[in-house]
Design a protein that fits this description.
The protein is globular. It is mainly beta and about 325 residues long. It has three helices and 17 strands. The strands form two sheets. A twelve-stranded antiparallel β-barrel has the order 1-3-4-8-9-10-11-12-13-14-15-17. A hairpin with a 2-residue loop joins strand 14 and strand 15. The two termini are about 20 Å apart.
């Protein structure tokens, strides 16, 4: 049973990287391009049922179009007329399994932004401009993650995870080259996986704490102290195909500057997905991402498509 779960662990826990600077969380695509910690969810889940594999390679790409933004009261405004903010993010993820039930992962993103008569604003806002299209490319925030299995039952398992994100992306400078949150951050939590019959279920709950505070002028993709959550349900159609639906997001409080300005921040994303396993050791997963326009605070909304190829190396 759990050997089969090991081969499909990526289908149960991954939420593919969302492009737009600085992911706030391990696996919920809640921020923007810059951090690839979302891909770490594959390695984290796979660690629970590692089956002796020593490496997992992930190659992901995400296309994101900003649709609007929430203010501090939770009121949503659409993208300015004639403006567009678009991002393409590619991510390389490497996970190593030093022993059965444990993993260490590294995720490195590269972000390309395209801005046309609109620009990123502070606290997840959007500013209209009169500037024609401008593009830029930059490395995002690099993330590391470790996972350890805590308990394994007949058809379910529980693991703990911890991670850190480095401010390797651009938090200031040309708007088209912004790609990071600007601060170090640490995070940790628990992930549970189960397989009742042909269904595959996962729940991921964690907490993130930034190790610093950016100025308001560099807060475009910053998310402060926040609870992170992810729920994923998959239906196994056969040995090769799975269809799924996910819900993920964050809720927290950002703090800025010497005055300790406290700002609520929150976002939710819905993600239907499909996965095809070419063999038990490699496959591809494609997902759509949509942010409801009624649930959020100080955050941008988007419509996105994601794809990730994964390959276990014995």
């Amino acid at each position: 049973m759990f050997q089969r779960l090991g081969a499909i662990a990526s289908a149960m826990a991954v939420v593919l990287s969302s492009p737009a600077p600085a992911f706030a969380c391990l696996s919920c695509s809640c921020g923007g391009s810059g951090s690839s910690a979302d891909l770490g969810a594959i390695g984290g889940a796979a660690a629970i049922f590692s089956m002796g594999h020593r490496w997992l390679i992930q190659e992901g790409v995400g296309l994101r179009a900003i649709t609007g933004s929430f203010n501090e009261r939770g009121d949503w405004s659409p993208m300015p007329v004639g403006g567009s903010l678009q991002t393409v993010q590619t991510t390389l993820g490497l996970s190593w399994f030093p022993s059965a039930g444990t993993s260490l992962g590294l995720q490195v993103p590269v972000v390309a932004n395209s801005l046309d008569k609109a620009s990123w604003g502070p606290l997840g806002s959007i500013n209209p401009t009169d500037l024609d299209r401008a593009t830029g490319v930059a490395v995002g925030d690099v993330a590391v993650q470790g996972t350890a299995r805590l308990y394994e039952g007949t058809s379910w398992a529980l693991a703990g995870w911890a991670g850190a994100t480095a401010p390797t992306g651009n938090a200031t400078g040309d708007p088209q080259a912004l790609s990071g949150a600007g601060v170090w951050s640490g995070s940790g939590g628990m992930i549970a996986l189960a397989q009742p019959g042909e269904w595959e279920l996962s729940a991921n709950l964690g907490y993130q704490r930034p190790l610093g505070r950016p100025p308001l002028t560099a807060s475009t993709f910053y998310v402060g102290d926040a609870w992170l959550y992810q729920l994923q349900v998959n239906r196994r159609l056969n040995d090769s195909w799975r269809m799924g639906a996910g819900l993920n997001g964050y809720a927290g409080l950002g703090r800025f500057g010497a005055g300790d300005l406290a700002v609520p921040m929150a976002k939710i994303k819905l993600m239907p997905s499909i996965q095809h396993a070419f063999t038990p050791l490699h496959g591809v997963r494609v997902a759509l991402g949509w942010d409801p326009t009624t649930l959020g605070t100080n955050a941008m909304t988007d419509l996105s498509v994601y794809a990730v190829f994964y390959q276990y190396v014995p």
